[in-house]
Amino acid sequence: MTELVAIVDEGLGNSSYVVDLGDGRALVVDPERDPTPYLETCARRKLRVAYAAETHLHADFVSGSLELTADQGAEVLAASAGQCQFPHRGLGDGEEVDLGGLALRALATPGHTPEHLSYLLVDGSAPLALFSGGSLLVGAVARTDLIAPERTEALARDMWRSIRERILSLPDDLPVYPTHGAGSFCSAPAGASRTTTIGREKSANTLLAAPDEEAFVQQLLDGLGTYPPYFSRLREVNRRGPSVYGPVPPPLDRLDAGRVRRLTDDGAVVVDVRPIAAFGAGHVPGSLSIVLRDQFATWLGWLVEADRPIVFVLGTDQDRGDVVRQAHKIGYEHLAGELSGGMEAWRAAGLPEHRIPLVLATEVAGAVLDVRQEAEFAAGHIPRAHHVELGSVAGTDVAAAPISVMCGHGERAMSAASILEASGHRDLAVVVGGPGDWAAARNRALVTGR
């Protein structure tokens, strides 16, 4: 078949696809806001992006279709039922777009969202690939609870019909390219890999093995976990059409320590993106630790209100552009700037700082607070641990002291500890490692007698 390149966002667990149409043009399916990976992929192949196809109104990221329109003149393809408020070609069930030798056929597959389309790439009458978006995933289907609680079950039933009547009737050897994959909070449950085939899902997907609609719906609903609150607003951002920034993100303003302090007095939040050891050794009082890594955007969107101005604290060698790109991809645009000179400048100004010690799993003392997701905690935890998901720590009364905060490695634990510290807790420590490290240390002690 024609060449296809997957562009994977490891942090959000999503994939976009660049399809070489064979005539110097490209189709991009479900692009994220930063156009750079699509533009670079096409530049290497001497392609122009002619089409940007949206499978649904995304809840977990801001669409990049308008970025590709602005830079490449791409025509946006989207569901008519989505009622997008920007120039696009609206498609309904069975409608085809002539790609010049190939065609893209829209298949109405509601479930993940009401307006959801899957796209079948065809050469004449021969199907080449299915872009399944948020319908059929690898070992899973996408969740149906992102629209409204009262619509969750009805959408699950829509999903059953979409999968059974529209997708599983396609050839077993047909490649399937989902948008949501491993690590995506849109998946229910999370899949383990990126691509699949119709036949592989028929034989291995446990949801598809459900004997009837009732069993399928119950199994799907039982697998739904929590998700970031920003999911509730991005569908509308994508329906209206987001602002266009281009491939180079605007730089963060440099703010002196006095300006940062005034901004926080006026309601801004300080987000410290340095590694946990640096944050633990000294940070702005009341600041929130979210380490700059692949998962940064998810936790920014989970822990910070979208309308609050944000001041960042970075290390000297960290990528400022990455901070802006990750914030923008989930629609966070109130970026006040960064603390110029970092913590060294804060100290030089004579301003106070707080510290949170790091401890090894063997040094855990006092109460243990495990802040991983429910499924992670259920899979294994240390015996005396109290469990609260990181996203709920701010609203939880944690009265014990001292508190050792634990996750899998330490990053989420430091986020939780910074939230607790901002609410008045002082006797805190963050565990470097997780339950597996604790268990390994305990087993070594049993073997060696030490």
CATH third-tier fold name of the largest domain: Metallo-beta-lactamase, Chain A
Helices and strands: which structural class? alpha/beta
Number of strands: 25
> How is the largest sheet built, in terms of strand order?
1-2-3-4-5-6
Report the principal-axis shape. globular
What is the rounded Rg?
24 Å
- β-strand percent reads 15-25%
Low-confidence stretches: none
CA-CA gap between termini:
61 Å
The CATH class of the largest domain: Alpha Beta
Count up the helices.
Answer: 14
Helix fraction bin: 25-40%
CATH architecture of the largest domain: 4-Layer Sandwich
Please identify which CATH superfamily of the largest domain we are dealing with.
Answer: Ribonuclease Z/Hydroxyacylglutathione hydrolase-like
Q: How many structural units, i.e. domains?
A: 3
Largest sheet: 6 strands, mixed
Report on this structure.
The protein is α/β, with parallel strands linked by helices and 450 residues long. The chain folds into 3 domains: 237 residues, Ribonuclease Z/Hydroxyacylglutathione hydrolase-like (Metallo-beta-lactamase, Chain A), CATH 3.60.15.10; 95 residues, Oxidized Rhodanese, domain 1 (3-Layer(aba) Sandwich); 91 residues, Oxidized Rhodanese, domain 1. It is 29% helix and 23% strand. The protein has 14 helices and 25 strands. The strands form 5 sheets. The chain has a 6-stranded mixed sheet with strand order 1-2-3-4-5-6. The protein has a 6-stranded mixed sheet with strand order 7-8-9-10-13-15. β7 and β8 form a beta hairpin. α3 packs across α5 and α9 crosses α10. The radius of gyration is 24 Å and the shape is globular. The model has no long low-confidence stretch (mean pLDDT 94).
